[in-house]
Each structure stands twice: as C-alpha cells, then as structure tokens.
C-alpha cells in the first residue's frame, strides 16, 4: 500500500457489487462508508488481435484474463476505456447502467484524448490558483 495511507483502516468502501456484460465490459459498484456516496465504474477492454476472455468475480472486484499471441516484431494492443459515475452526478439514475452505457459507447482513444484535453483545459481556465 501507500505509506501515507497506512494509518487508515482500509474499510472506506462498502456494499461491493461486481459483474460482467457482453463485449468486454466489467463493472464494480460500491459506497463510501463515511460520506455514503455511491460509485459505479465500468470498463471496456478491447484487444488486437481479438482474444477470448476468461472472467472471474471476486468479493470486491472483477478479473478479466486475455491470452494474446505474442511474438517478436508482432504488435498486440490492449485498450481499456472506463466510465465512472457517482451519486453526486446529475441527473440521478442507475449508476451501473450509465457507466456501462458510456464505457461501451465511448469513442476510440484519439477522440477521447482530444475531449479530455479540452475538458481539462476548460477546468484550468475556470479555476484560480494563488501561491
């Protein structure tokens, strides 16, 4: 673990739920213990070349195992795209469904990189930092 968090009891999340959906989707949902904020995270994993996936649920997470053919001078690609929602997001709704929908429909990496760069640029412009 991280040294600065060693004094914490490690029980800051509760009510874990996990699952899988078609097309490489895995999800996890939980709640923060002190602030009672619900959280849902869904992730889409795509491999090139395509590979079958073996899935396994644990009490607090999901595991996806891919076996890819690896050889010298031969590329493989693994792209994981995630969507995160909390009960603080509006409008309210089923957080797992929203996270799975957005993770499954998200565009490819170049388009996501462009939108993320623009979003972070707007946030930095709106914020004020005083030193």
TrEMBL record:
Name by which UniProt lists this protein: Glycoside hydrolase family 65 protein
Segments forming domain Glycoside hydrolase family 65 N-terminal: 11-87
Coiled coil feature spans: none
Keywords in alphabetical order: Hydrolase
UniProt xrefs under SUPFAM superfamilies: Galactose mutarotase-like
Gene Ontology molecular function terms on file: carbohydrate binding; hydrolase activity
Keyword Hydrolase part of the UniProt annotation: yes
Gene Ontology annotations of biological process type: carbohydrate metabolic process
Organism annotation: Streptomyces sp. SID12501
Gene3D superfamilies for the chain: Glycoside hydrolase, family 65, N-terminal domain
Superkingdom of origin organism: Bacteria
């Amino acid at each position: 673990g991280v040294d600065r968090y060693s004094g914490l009891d490690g029980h800051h999340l509760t009510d874990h739920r996990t699952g899988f959906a078609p097309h490489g989707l895995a999800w996890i949902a939980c709640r923060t213990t002190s602030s009672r904020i619900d959280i849902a995270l869904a992730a889409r994993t795509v491999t090139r070349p395509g590979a079958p996936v073996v899935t396994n649920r644990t009490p607090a997470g999901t595991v996806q195992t891919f076996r890819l053919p690896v050889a010298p001078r031969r590329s493989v690609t693994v792209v994981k795209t995630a969507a995160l929602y909390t009960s603080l997001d509006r409008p309210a709704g089923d957080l797992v469904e929203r996270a799975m929908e957005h993770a499954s429909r998200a565009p490819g990496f170049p388009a996501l990189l462009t939108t993320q760069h623009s979003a972070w640029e707007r946030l930095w412009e709106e914020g004020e930092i005083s030193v």
